[in-house]
Amino acid sequence: MPAPLFEYLLRIGDDRLVLGHRNSEWCGHGPILEEDIALANISLDLIGQAQLLLNLAGQLEGQGRDADTLAYWRDDVQFRNLQMAELPKGDFAFTMMRQFLFSAWANLQLEGPIQGNHEDLKGIAAKAHKENRYHLRHASEWVIRMGDGTEESHRRAQAALDELWPWTGEMFQQDDVDRAVAEQGAVVVAADLEPRWRAAVTDLLGRARLTIPTAPMRMTGGRKGRHTEYLGRMLAEMQIVARSHPGATW
Amino acid sequence: MATTDTSASEWPLWEVFTQPPGGKPHEHAGSVHAPDAEIALQNARDVYTRRGEAVSIWVVPSVLISASAPGDAGPWFDPGNDKPYRHPQFYKTPRGVKVF
């Protein structure tokens, strides 16, 4: 069994790699030029965080794998991201709602490694937290404007929330990996993560005049390598150049 | 929240001013489209400040800027050209002044 911290780094690294790739699919397709650039910026931040986290994971593993190897040479069952991150980008409301729900979670979740005792991870988490605060602000403002906007924007924002909400349960599941990294002190796991997240998103969704669905949470398994049909296809596109030309450089 | 009219097909234009690091004054950087001030600030941040260019941003609706007309350029600005005494460049910089 791989070391718990390696596994933990894959999880939070893959979240950002996969979500960053999904957001990057907007590049050249944004609703307006400025938002196209904003989404590309968020993607670059997330992929940059993934690179730092996966490089650290590779170092800890000690088998010569770096971020590129981990990103391009694993198959879907070896990815550890939240299933929510791999869903197709949908419309702009779906992308922004997902970013909002994820960023609101990451804003609190990153406090764990920031308060932990692993110096390299602390540094990466602190940088990611700073970038994440902007992502949260950007996505929040759009959720408010779409939810409290026109009839169509409200309908789309509500539909995005209805679709995404049942996927959020996975963010708060704890298992042996979480307990082990908490025990070794690398991550301080807060018991009140879920209520704090729920309070924050409830407040903002209320301001956006959106209704939180009552649907039950979905079955999950992203942290164990069980994914939706969408991840494999996304990885095929993401990995094909690296796999067609192994070791190629610019 | 304060909004500008968005009924037109395009969002209103905002002029962006960014302040470089080191206490320099805000300078005109360009313009962005945005439905309101908060989004204008965010768009300006994303378009003009991603390479460490700025420590502060101002945005202002372009329609609120009053500008001199191109036709005024002659009467307004030419008279300065033949009055060299308006340019204090005949003075030597005192030795004690390091930065000028």
UniProtKB/TrEMBL annotation, chain A:
InterPro entries: Aromatic_CoA_ox/epox, Ferritin-like, Ferritin-like_SF, PaaA_PaaC, PaaC
Membrane-traversing stretches: none
UniProt xrefs under Pfam families: PaaA_PaaC (PF05138)
Gene Ontology biological-process annotations: phenylacetate catabolic process
Superkingdom in the source lineage: Bacteria
Record Gene3D superfamilies: 1.20.1260.10
Name of protein: Phenylacetate-CoA oxygenase subunit PaaC
Species assigned in the record: Candidatus Tanganyikabacteria bacterium
Lineage: Bacteria, Bacillati, Candidatus Sericytochromatia, Candidatus Tanganyikabacteria
Gene coding for it: paaC
From TrEMBL, chain B:
Chain segments annotated as coiled-coil in the UniProt record: none
Domain of life: Bacteria
Matches recorded under Gene3D superfamilies: Phenylacetic acid degradation B (3.10.20.520)
Pfam families: PaaB (PF06243)
GO MF term list: phenylacetyl-CoA 1,2-epoxidase activity
Keywords: Oxidoreductase
InterPro entries the record matches: PaaB, PaaB_sf
EC numbers: 1.14.13.149
Name of protein: 1,2-phenylacetyl-CoA epoxidase subunit B
Organism in which the protein naturally occurs: Candidatus Tanganyikabacteria bacterium
